[in-house]
Amino acid sequence: MTLSAQLDLVKVLFTTDTGRQALRSPESCRTFLQEQGVPPEEQEALLQFGVERLRQYATMIHWNVQENLKATYPLTMKVLGENGPAVLEGFFLAHPATSFRLMQNAEPFSAYLEAQSLVQAHCPFLPELARYEWIRASLYNAADPEEINLAETIPQETQEMKDWYPVLNPVALKLPLTYPIHRIAGLLSSGEEVVLDTQTPGQTLLWMYRHPITLTSQEKEVSPMLADWLQTVLSEQHSGSAKSYLASLTALAERHQIPSADTERFCRQFLQAIPELQHCGIMLGSHCVKA
């Protein structure tokens, strides 16, 4: 067997229900290996480790994946309550590990919950809560961005808006939601009851980010227009095509059909939100276009 085939075999043996059932006895394991097309000599090489030892490895992997899921989705698990272990088991069996990084294997959990009709009927906001928790965990564990020297300048005059461009915290993303998950998460964290009748579905936009100083995952509810601007500026920043405050805000005004006669006033008013964005860690500062 090739190395790739051996790795696939071990993955099936250790992370699927069929594989773990095969580890009940040497005979069932040998039958499983034969069905997988493993040559006789390689069957013996694997069986010499002992089925009990192989079962311990499988249990260790299963336990570590489950504990990682619980740590990544604490509030989701709190809502699931006594159904949590069975749901985790179902997810584990339906999604064999695809990475040596435990967190990467946890990513499809929200999509798995969305496909479970019983979960949806019991708690329709649960998939979004899981997605919210996954993003918080992934932002916390994201690689550190390169350090950049920035000025705290917030332009006000038109000329200043032409000369400076915004620099956002790059460890961030936009999360559109049907439910106010950040409020629901707050209620769950404080032990309060979430009354579904009061949580009417509606569009909620969160800007999720890792604070540049405390390195904690945070979020801010934003308007569609602010979310549009943040997403556009961050995309241009990542692609190396950053625009000045004036250019980015003028483009925003055009997208949202602000009359051209009101564009400069719109830009000035919009800039009033910048200090708060800097204070909470969404914006890092400004760069001079001329520099």
Characterize the structure shown.
- This protein is mostly helical and 291 residues long.
- The chain is built from 17 helices and 5 strands.
- A 3-stranded antiparallel beta sheet has the order 2-3-4. It has a two-stranded antiparallel sheet with strand order 1-5.
- The chain is elongated, with a radius of gyration of 25 Å.
Question: What's this, in brief?
Answer:
With 291 residues, the chain is mainly alpha-helical.
Share in β-strands: 5-15%
Sheet with the most strands: spatial strand order: 2-3-4
Tally the helices: 17
Residue ranges: pLDDT <50 for 5 or more in a row?
none
Report the principal-axis shape: elongated
**Terminal residue distance:** 59 Å
Helix percent reads 55-70%
- Please outline the major beta sheet: 3 strands, antiparallel
Average pLDDT value? 86
E-strand count: 5
Class by SSE composition? mainly alpha
Order of helices and strands: HHHHHHHHHHHHEEHEEHHHHE
Radius of gyration: 25 Å
Give a topology summary:
Elements (H helix, E strand, L loop, with lengths): L2 H13 L1 H6 L3 H10 L4 H8 L3 H22 L1 H7 L3 H11 L7 H5 L2 H6 L2 H6 L3 H15 L17 H6 E5 L3 E6 L3 H9 L14 E7 L6 E5 L2 H16 L5 H11 L7 H8 L3 H7 L2 E6 L3
Antiparallel strand pairs: 1-5, 2-3, 3-4
Search tags:
single chain, 291 residues, mainly alpha, three-stranded antiparallel β-sheet, two-stranded antiparallel sheet, 17 helices, 10% strand, elongated
